[in-house]
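Reminder to self: tokens first, then the designed residues, so the page reads top to bottom the way the pipeline ran.
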């Protein structure tokens, strides 16, 4: 049974909530907006970004169109800082680094990562051992494309545990969690962090110990990355 939606931070202009697994973004009857309205009594809420239905974690809903436009623009301009947590039972091809490439739709709702760099999805990560046969991964996506993290980890040979769409081993959930979200509002940086609450492997002491050893994700030695320049109009 899914956990209830939790309010993590309340502001006159926005709400930060913890989305459980299994709740869709745009379902008019059972989606995240409807669920939060039922808790808060708000009559108007606006999604600023999205998470996959199988993904849990931090999400921002605006309480007015102005805030929705501001936060959404920060997402579009890659100004929002996001960290995710994942678990895999497959050893990745490399322990840390940057994955970059265009994404292409495939059959059955899948996407694949290409080598081309026209409009790349960019995903940075660090991984470490949780327990024999299990690795924890902290992910910093620099872009926000559909299924980006799931496709990136699949391309490493380490699909997310429970992610059947991308070849992950069957488990009690898809082990992807939006851990921390940080954006600007009225000249102040708003940062909200939420540890995962669902999933047997997230609940173990071994995972908690790995997360504690990891420390502040801002302090990790993330590699520098420069986005490719857009093509010149003269080059068409």
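Designed residues (236 positions):
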């Amino acid at each position: 049974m899914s956990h209830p939606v939790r309010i993590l931070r309340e502001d006159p202009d926005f709400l930060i909530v913890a989305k459980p697994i299994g709740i869709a973004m745009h379902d008019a009857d059972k989606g995240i907006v409807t669920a939060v309205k039922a808790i808060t009594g708000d009559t108007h809420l606006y999604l600023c970004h999205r998470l996959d239905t199988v993904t849990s974690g931090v999400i921002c809903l605006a309480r007015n169109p102005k805030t929705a436009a501001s936060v959404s623009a920060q997402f579009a301009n890659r100004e929002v800082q996001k960290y995710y947590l994942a678990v895999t039972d497959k050893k990745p091809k490399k322990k840390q680094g940057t994955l970059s490439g265009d994404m292409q739709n495939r059959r059955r709702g899948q996407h694949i990562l290409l080598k081309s760099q026209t409009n790349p999805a960019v995903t940075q990560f660090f991984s470490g051992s949780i327990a024999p046969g299990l690795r924890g991964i902290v992910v910093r996506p620099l872009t926000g494309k559909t299924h980006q993290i799931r496709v990136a980890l699949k391309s490493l040979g380490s699909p997310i545990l429970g992610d059947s769409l991308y070849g992950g081993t069957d488990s009690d959930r898809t082990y992807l969690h939006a851990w921390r979200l940080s954006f600007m509002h009225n000249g102040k940086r708003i940062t909200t962090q939420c540890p995962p609450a669902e999933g047997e492997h997230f609940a173990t002491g071994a995972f908690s110990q790995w997360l504690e050893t990891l420390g502040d994700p801002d302090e990790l030695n993330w590699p520098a990355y420069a986005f490719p320049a857009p093509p010149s109009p003269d080059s068409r």
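The chain has a mean pLDDT of 94.
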